User: Fold these one by one.
Assistant:
Number 1:
Amino acid sequence: MAPYLQTVKSFVDVPITDAGVDTVEFLKAAEGLVGIFDLLGGIAFAAVKKDLTTNIGKVRTRYNAAPEKSATLEQLVANEKAEKLNTASEGLTWLLRGLAFTCKALQTAQANKSEELASAFRKGYEETLKKYHNFLMKGAFSAALSGCPYRADFYHKLAEDPNGVSALSQDQLSEELDKWLAALDVIVTRLQLYYK
């Protein structure tokens, strides 16, 4: 095994062409992001993880049904719209919102090394998801965010090798995480603009 970010598909490696963001590679990277919620605390973030997984499934189902029309996420959305469908497009909308939330939260944590995760995730929520949630969902998120682990514990889990063979230094982890988040931010921003 290896440290977490080295075991999953990186958003850095998701191809983006003039035609758009590669659907299959994007889904692999999104699945890798979902695993971060296990490191944050599976119980506290179970609803977030389930929502992301469900929406990844909606996009994957559409891709599997029409791979020739879904090579990129942009093609998938355009072709689904032309067929007067919206299941995958709606799933992708919510997936992007969840990815934006996670990205902003971790970017906030990265920008301020003394900020605890609960605070960084609250700020990420305020900037991304809160405006889409009703009163009940806001309460559920508030409770989940209170369950964030301490920053040091989470970063230790991200850096460690579960087998104890190797681990990243905090500087190496920070550099790798910054690249991962920057690439995710580019993809999310691009697709949000496409939707507009």
Number 2:
Amino acid sequence: MMEIRYELTEEDVVAFNVYHVKNSNIGRNSLRWQRLASPLIFLLFAYLLSIFTEIPAAPLLSTFTITAVIWVLFYPKYFYWHITRQVRKMLKEGKNEGLIGEHVLKMQKKGITDSTQNGETIVNWEAIKSFKEDIGHFYLYNSAISAYIIPKREVNADAVRNHLKKWLTL
């Protein structure tokens, strides 16, 4: 058995959500679609504006082309900033006492027990859909959109990784 104690912060939850969007097919497709479709709409608008008004096409197309290039270059940064902002808003508006705060995670032969001030959840290893990690966190996905978040700053990362690989059969 391994027991780890850690404090889960708002930053950890935001990091998970950004990681999830960056690494999910839906998140990547959404970013790709929004990044490329909007500039095409800008250029189409410029073309139609030049047809239906007296404004010459060259200045319109050059202005909207510059706008489109700026959009393609900077939209990903805005996209992830927007996700971060939305997650922070949701955390502030809802009751998240069991999410943010102190956690005691026990990893045993039968599964995981996560204890917080609000209660305890017990999950069998078979319920863990995938194990992912980034620079600062481990993510134990228990569904397509939620995971147990373990910040590496609070634990011995190699020991936790080895222990998880011992129990997980993904």
Number 3:
Amino acid sequence: MAPGLIELERKFIPGPGIEERLQELGGTLEHQVTFRDTYYDNSELGLMRADYWLRQRENSGWELKCPGAAGVLGPHTKYIELTAEPAIVAQLCVPAQEKAPAKLIMYLQRFRPQDYQRLLEVNGSREKPQGTKHPDGILD
């Protein structure tokens, strides 16, 4: 959809005889489009429960519809529609923010490893200081 445009979608169930009535009023069927959407979620329906709708439209690609701005008044819902795969992935897989290691911890690790080791021993059963390394060298 072009920037600045608003898509208005109103769903309704036509009553019996509506097609004939439209023809009486001069309406004609210009064209008909049929497509198939395949929706994806996990077994706990986590996306659906969060009002996220991940689908792959036949011959059209991926789309994620997710809640838009909060507080929209009225009998409508505002959704953001993402169609670029990187944007969809970014929306669904928010990576945990990496914490920068504390300067003092880094200093102790590099230049005073015995003091750093003592610090770990003192903390023992408590959490390790922020920015400490696992034995495999990965920062917490």
Number 4:
Amino acid sequence: MLTTHHKNLAAIIHLSTLTKFIIPLGNFLMPLIFWTMNKDKSEFIDKHGKQAINFQLSILLYTIIIGCLTIPMFLFGVLNSVSFPEFWNAYDFDFHLSIHDSFNVILFTIISGLLLAAAFIFEIVFIIIATSKANQGKPYKYPITINFLK
């Protein structure tokens, strides 16, 4: 039987992911604590707890992938567009950045930043939707989530 207490606990599990703004790794630790303490009380709580943790792990994985693509591309773009002095010629210390090459680096950095900002906004929106669904007693499955916990 689904009670108001179970609905509230499921909603708290989803909302506890927002503790990442206060506690480092709070988005993993707090839902994990609430879920493990209450997963045996209700199948509803168990499903919502797994969904919240799976979503946070998926977001972490996607952020790592974007970072692994962005950082090397940015560094290689900067290093390719910087003209380093030749050390065997003591009179040639010409250090400059090509405007054309730096534009590509800046554009790629802006696109990557926008991707990360969009992921952040979607994360907040999906957490609010999941909290609302849990409070209404409805099941919710986060989009683009990899099921680490089944």
